[in-house]
Amino acid sequence: MDLTEPGKQGSPVKRRDLLVHLNSEKDPGGILKGLAGMTPGEKRTIQPKEGQTLTAELKSIKVKQLPALDDDLAKSVGSFETLEQLKQAVQQGLEGEAKASQRQVLENQTVRQLLEVWNFDVPPSLVGSQAQRLLKERAVELMQQGVPTSEVEAKAEILAEQAKLDALKSVKLFFILRRIAANENLTAAPEELEERIKTLSLRLQRPPEEVRKDLERRDLLDELAWNIVRTKVFDLMIREASIKETD
């Protein structure tokens, strides 16, 4: 496949043995439309854009085929011996995602109500530092999504304002949850912390002792314990909300 643009210096750009997926809905340059109907061995020259010339030779046509739903498929996609085991794993995964999604919705509703009911001032220094952290995180996310740096910089003012609002909510929520945890005597028991470390070790495929040492070195044990307490606070709030709704 050769692509030339008259008026530009250099030889035509050549690409060999390209696998092109025929999807007319994803063809902004109109290249696929120009190649439609070709047969193996045929050469064709098209002009996808003004000033461009594309010459292509079709070597073969391939068709995607779904694999058979059998034990061999199960073995090829993971540590499964039978198709039934794969089905059960998929079912459990879907159920887990559904529960996590439902939980997130309930937590979001709880957060919104807490912020509406509790109105108080928080230290500006905490809000400012949190806003800077959120702003950096958002900028990195946009760049990882392929957004040009110039576009990210152009949105800096809007992103900064949004970061301030999010930071204020985040800091207020932190104090609210801490107060509720203290009032309800909610803490993270040592065995609960150990269980959370074991879960992390399985996910990271590292020994629990190694994970604990890493958390201690990075001063993250307190953060892990707070995550446990935070979950208990939301459990309490969601449970109480459900009781009130029933009444």
Give the topology.
Blueprint: E1 2-4, E2 13-14, H1 31-35, E3 43-46, E4 53-57, H2 71-77, H3 83-117, H4 124-144, H5 149-154, H6 156-183, H7 190-204, H8 208-217, H9 221-246
Antiparallel strand pairs: 1-2, 1-4, 3-4
Q: Which H/E pattern describes the elements?
A: EEHEEHHHHHHHH
- Major sheet strand order: 2-1-4-3
Structural class: mainly alpha
Number of helices: 9
**Largest sheet report:** 4 strands, antiparallel
Helical residue percent? 55-70%
Residue windows where pLDDT falls under 50 for at least 5 positions: none
Oligomer: single chain
Distance between the termini: 71 Å
Mean pLDDT: 85
| Proportion in β-strands | 5-15%
- Compute the number of strand runs: 4
CA radius of gyration is 28 Å
**Form type:** extended
Short summary of the structure?
The chain is mainly alpha-helical. 62% of the residues lie in helices and 6% in strands. The mean pLDDT is 85.
Characterize the structure shown.
- The protein is mainly alpha-helical.
- A four-stranded antiparallel sheet has the order 2-1-4-3.
- The chain has helices spanning 31-35, 71-77, 83-117, 124-144, 149-154, 156-183, 190-204, 208-217, 221-246; strands spanning 2-4, 13-14, 43-46, 53-57.
